Protein backbone atom coordinates (compact mmCIF):
# COMPACT_ATOMS: atom_id res chain seq x y z
CA UNK A 1 0.00 0.00 0.00
CA UNK A 2 1.16 3.49 -0.83
CA UNK A 3 1.12 6.17 1.79
CA UNK A 4 -2.40 7.47 2.20
CA UNK A 5 -1.12 11.05 2.11
CA UNK A 6 0.35 10.48 -1.37
CA UNK A 7 -2.89 9.03 -2.65
CA UNK A 8 -4.89 11.91 -1.15
CA UNK A 9 -2.50 14.47 -2.60
CA UNK A 10 -3.00 12.97 -6.04
CA UNK A 11 -6.79 13.10 -5.59
CA UNK A 12 -6.58 16.80 -4.68
CA UNK A 13 -4.54 17.38 -7.83
CA UNK A 14 -7.18 15.61 -9.93
CA UNK A 15 -9.85 17.84 -8.43
CA UNK A 16 -7.84 21.01 -9.17
CA UNK A 17 -7.13 19.93 -12.74
CA UNK A 18 -10.83 19.32 -13.30
CA UNK A 19 -11.70 22.71 -11.81
CA UNK A 20 -9.23 24.68 -13.93
CA UNK A 21 -9.44 22.56 -17.13
CA UNK A 22 -11.54 24.99 -19.24
CA UNK A 23 -9.46 28.02 -18.28
CA UNK A 24 -6.19 26.11 -18.74
CA UNK A 25 -7.24 24.81 -22.18
CA UNK A 26 -8.28 28.28 -23.34
CA UNK A 27 -5.02 29.89 -22.21
CA UNK A 28 -2.95 27.08 -23.71
CA UNK A 29 -4.72 27.42 -27.05
CA UNK A 30 -4.08 31.17 -27.01
CA UNK A 31 -0.42 30.71 -26.08
CA UNK A 32 0.13 28.20 -28.91
CA UNK A 33 -1.79 30.12 -31.58
CA UNK A 34 0.85 31.31 -34.09
CA UNK A 35 -1.59 33.71 -35.79
CA UNK A 36 -1.90 35.92 -32.70
CA UNK A 37 0.40 38.76 -31.75
CA UNK A 38 3.44 37.87 -29.63
CA UNK A 39 2.25 40.14 -26.82
CA UNK A 40 -1.11 38.36 -26.56
CA UNK A 41 0.64 35.00 -26.45
CA UNK A 42 3.01 36.21 -23.75
CA UNK A 43 0.11 37.49 -21.66
CA UNK A 44 -1.59 34.09 -21.99
CA UNK A 45 1.59 32.35 -20.80
CA UNK A 46 1.86 34.72 -17.83
CA UNK A 47 -1.76 34.03 -16.90
CA UNK A 48 -1.06 30.30 -17.13
CA UNK A 49 1.83 30.79 -14.72
CA UNK A 50 -0.54 32.46 -12.24
CA UNK A 51 -2.74 29.35 -12.07
CA UNK A 52 -2.04 26.95 -9.21
CA UNK A 53 0.85 24.63 -9.98
CA UNK A 54 -1.28 21.56 -9.30
CA UNK A 55 -3.83 22.69 -11.89
CA UNK A 56 -1.46 21.43 -14.58
CA UNK A 57 -2.59 18.00 -15.87
CA UNK A 58 0.98 16.70 -16.08
CA UNK A 59 1.24 16.71 -12.28
CA UNK A 60 -1.29 13.90 -11.93
CA UNK A 61 0.35 10.55 -11.25
CA UNK A 62 -1.22 7.31 -12.44
CA UNK A 63 -1.80 5.11 -9.42
CA UNK A 64 -3.26 1.66 -8.82
CA UNK A 65 -6.95 1.84 -7.90
CA UNK A 66 -6.55 -0.73 -5.13
CA UNK A 67 -3.13 -0.18 -3.58
CA UNK A 68 -2.19 3.30 -4.75
CA UNK A 69 1.13 2.01 -6.09
CA UNK A 70 2.61 4.58 -8.53
CA UNK A 71 4.99 2.29 -10.44
CA UNK A 72 4.34 -0.57 -12.88
CA UNK A 73 0.89 0.81 -13.70
CA UNK A 74 -1.20 -0.69 -16.52
CA UNK A 75 -3.49 1.97 -17.97
CA UNK A 76 -5.86 -0.51 -19.56
CA UNK A 77 -6.71 -2.06 -16.19
CA UNK A 78 -5.88 0.93 -13.96
CA UNK A 79 -3.94 -1.47 -11.73
CA UNK A 80 -0.34 -2.03 -10.73
CA UNK A 81 1.38 -5.21 -11.95
CA UNK A 82 1.17 -6.86 -8.53
CA UNK A 83 -2.60 -6.49 -8.23
CA UNK A 84 -3.12 -7.26 -11.92
CA UNK A 85 -1.35 -10.58 -11.50
CA UNK A 86 -3.16 -11.39 -8.27
CA UNK A 87 -6.64 -10.62 -9.64
CA UNK A 88 -5.92 -12.35 -12.96
CA UNK A 89 -4.80 -15.53 -11.19
CA UNK A 90 -8.02 -15.51 -9.18
CA UNK A 91 -10.01 -15.07 -12.41
CA UNK A 92 -11.50 -11.72 -11.38
CA UNK A 93 -10.49 -9.85 -14.54
CA UNK A 94 -12.65 -10.83 -17.53
CA UNK A 95 -10.77 -11.90 -20.63
CA UNK A 96 -7.39 -12.29 -18.92
CA UNK A 97 -5.96 -15.77 -18.66
CA UNK A 98 -2.62 -17.14 -17.56
CA UNK A 99 -0.58 -17.89 -20.62
CA UNK A 100 0.74 -21.37 -21.29
CA UNK A 101 2.49 -22.78 -24.33
* Class from secondary-structure proportions: mainly alpha
State the helix count. Answer: 3
Shape: elongated
Radius of gyration of CA atoms, rounded to a whole number: 20 Å
Q: Major sheet: size, sense and barrel closure?
A: 2 strands, antiparallel
* Average pLDDT rating: 93
Distance between the ends: 33 Å
Helix content: 40-55%
Runs in which pLDDT lies below 50 for 5 or more consecutive residues are none
Strand line-up across the major sheet: 1-2
CATH architecture field of the largest domain: Orthogonal Bundle
Write the element-wise H/E pattern from the N-terminal end onward.
Answer: HHEEH
The fraction of residues in strands falls at under 5%
Count of all domains: 2
Q: How many beta strands in the DSSP annotation?
A: 2
| CATH topology heading of the largest domain | Helix Hairpins
CATH class value of the largest domain: Mainly Alpha
In short:
It holds the Pfam family Ribosomal_S14. The chain is mainly alpha-helical and 101 residues long.
What distinguishing features does this structure have?
Small ribosomal subunit protein uS14; Helix Hairpins; mainly alpha; 101 residues; 3 helices
Structural summary, described in words:
- Helix 1 packs antiparallel against helix 2 (38-50).
- The chain has a two-stranded antiparallel sheet.
- It is 51% helix and 4% strand.
- By secondary structure, the protein is mainly alpha-helical.
- It has helices at residues 4-32, 38-50, 81-90; strands at 73-74, 79-80.
- It folds into two domains: 1-61, Helix Hairpins; 64-93, no CATH class.
- The chain has three helices and two strands.
- The mean pLDDT is 93.
- The longest helix has 29 residues, at 4-32.
- Strand 1 and strand 2 form a beta hairpin.
- The protein is elongated, with a radius of gyration of 20 Å.
